[in-house]
Amino acid sequence: MRKIILSLSFILSATYVQSGQKLAFVYELVRHGARASTHSEDLSIFEVPKGQLTRSGMRQRYLIGKYNRQKYIEKEQLIDGTYNPSQIYLQTTSVTRAQQSSYAEMMGLFPPLQNSQLNEQIPSKAMPKLKLHNKGNLQETVLKSQIDNYQFIPAFTYAEANVNDDLYFTGCPWVYAYKTDAAKKPETYNGVIDEVLDVLRNPIGKANNYTQDQIDKINFNDITLEQDKWFTTDFQGVKQWYQYTPVELEYLKHFQVIHLTLPVGQQGRQLLMTKQLSKPIQSMKNRIQEILSGNQSKDTLRYIVYSGHDDTISNLLVFLNPVNFYFEAVPYCSQVYFELYYDEDCVSTKKDNSCFTLQMFYNGHPFKLDTCQAANLQRGSNSPFCQFDDFVAHYDKLKYQGDVKEACLKPYTG
User: Fold this and answer.
1) What positions belong to coiled-coil segments (predicted)?
2) Could you give the percent of the chain with pLDDT greater than 90?
3) Strands 386-387 and 335-343
């Protein structure tokens, strides 16, 4: 529980909203919660199969949903308190732990309704009685497993690889093949692996009781396996007999980012992030036009949630390249938020895109973009945030400049 509280402390950040500003749209990219190891043979401490979401992981995402309800529903009134399918879109990868995490977060965002349930004592001409031959068995096995007044929120996913999937690597076959191939090649990590091995080779050997011959053969794959084992068991509260020093832990943590980003490559990252940000940006543009045109309808999209993995977040941060920004690792339930605000007085007078600003956070910490900083400086503004058009200019500067779909579908030849 202590770790869950510490994780939530990242998102309970200060509010930077000025008077007269109103929240218009939110894009949330979030990693799944704590999971079982994908490599350990002893899974008894996790109580779930390999790679699956643990109880702690479910609680993590549930609490994120509960906090977002307080912020986006109760405080900002961005969306309705009862699920409205026109207002929110939730997409997850096809990986089970990401899907489980999505449902856990939605239970926090949209808790069970308070109205009473229908039962067989309530007369209703629209609900004729049904004769069930196995009523007793159904009551025992099905009805008792249901949560009263549960709100069913759809989580959209692509069960098979599809180029229209903007969230995961399989949506861009060329990048997926390139990454899979590059991740196996030692030369991918040239320039960084020697330093990492100098720090971690002997500690990993001691932690696993390796022989000297095994220690000498440790490579980047061994670091990845050790990282998975150490962080999954540590989150479960299992004390390791070998204690890494703070410096060793920093290297072990940061190799996660190295391993997730270097194999993707610059072009691969451009393709992935161009796809990933395209629909949220277009949805923000649509929302801006609704507000500028005076559209008062509540039945429009204003919240997108992408439930993904550490690689989706780490590559997004490297792609955006924030100013003076360093992230050591991507812990369970890490989040990147893009919050679109507008000035109500500005909208009523100027009626243009300059009324809209975008605030961005990684695990509760705001980050800045050089394009926005330069534009703000030209306007004589010290604002740390982006005017929306400046953010789009930053994206346009970094995105893949060719035909994304064509590039994703071209054969990978190695």
Assistant:
1) none
2) 78
3) unpaired
